[in-house]
Amino acid sequence: MRPVTIEAIKLHVxxxxxxxxxxxxxxxxxxxxxxxxxxxxSDGLTGWGExxxxxxxxxxxxxxxxxxHIMRDFLVPKxxxxxxxxPTEVPALFRSIRGxxxxxxxxxxxxxxxxxxxxxxxxxxxxxxxxxxxxxxRERVAVGVSIGMQDTLDAQLALIxxxxxxxxxxxxxxxxxxxxxxxxxxxxxxxxxxxxxxxxNSAYTLDDAAHLQALDQFDLLMIEQPLAHDDIYQHSRLGxxxxxxxxxxESIHSAQDWRxxxxxxxxxxxxxxxxxxxxxxxxxxxxxxCVETKTPLWIGGMLETGIGRAANLALASLPAVTLPSDIxxxxxxxxxxxxxxxxxxxxxxxxSLPTGAGIGVDVQRDRVEEARNRWQQHNPFAPLF
Length: 385
Ligand code: MG
Prior knowledge:
The chain contains 12 helices and 15 strands. The strands form 4 sheets. A 7-stranded parallel sheet has the order 6-7-8-9-10-11-12. The chain is globular and about 60 Å long. Helix 7 links the parallel strand 8 and strand 9. Magnesium ion binds next to loops.
């Protein structure tokens, strides 16, 4: 494998208007913010990564500004001038820096893209090259769509109908106390056969177990992260009380967390977000653990731009990702995105894997500049990068 020497790493803070806001039990943000990481090698190649963070510490503890601080002052200096043969060398270089998984994942992603390009491989094939030989990527990846909370049941049902018409075959709805059982009942009455799952984003406690049991009658694919964002143990108490499989999201930050959760019976399905676990290296460790334990797995999303989405799609193409991933077509998120070509929903609720090297999509510099200006305009006290 051809190595690269890291000459520079540029950080672009961007804000993009969303086609549709995603309201969850945490609320909604008016723009999708992200830090785009551009890694340049001494031989003129460019790799791109993304930290798709929020401006507030809601989904996780990190924000755009904390990640900028950690990247600029701690992570980037560890990589400058380094010659890397594999992105799996990056976590060791970052070992002295604790936490801050989204920040480290954004930078690590740029190194994965850079090294895949240096070796003229698609990122999906490059991931597979770090796995046993029977994990060849699939060319089409099954995906679903996540729909935020609407103001009325009628509006929610209309939006589900729209997404089904577009071709999505797995619908995920956000729930919170007061917007759960009646919602699921109304959806099931109108769409009796749709593949449906609910995401609570930590909105309940173990005291709500009896209430959550009322969701069992609606034939749900899973319920995602019903209890606290930092809990594993109480989920292990809830799981046996529900027929609906429990999927963990916010609680799992590493392969070790997932091993503990499986051991305790806290969840039977994993929503793997590479950024939440610190990057693709740790994601592949979790992937291997899911293979070993025959655990259903899918790849989650943070409303990434085309940069982060292309990389997540590459991970989702691996064959042990057995459930539809939260990676929708470009027109679900942005008009336009900062990359070309757009991802278009195809047959069987799927997206095609790009064919080019690395993430396989082209970053549009003028749109990045426009999105940088939008961030500056709406965040006047943020430092300039
Ligand atoms: Mg979730």
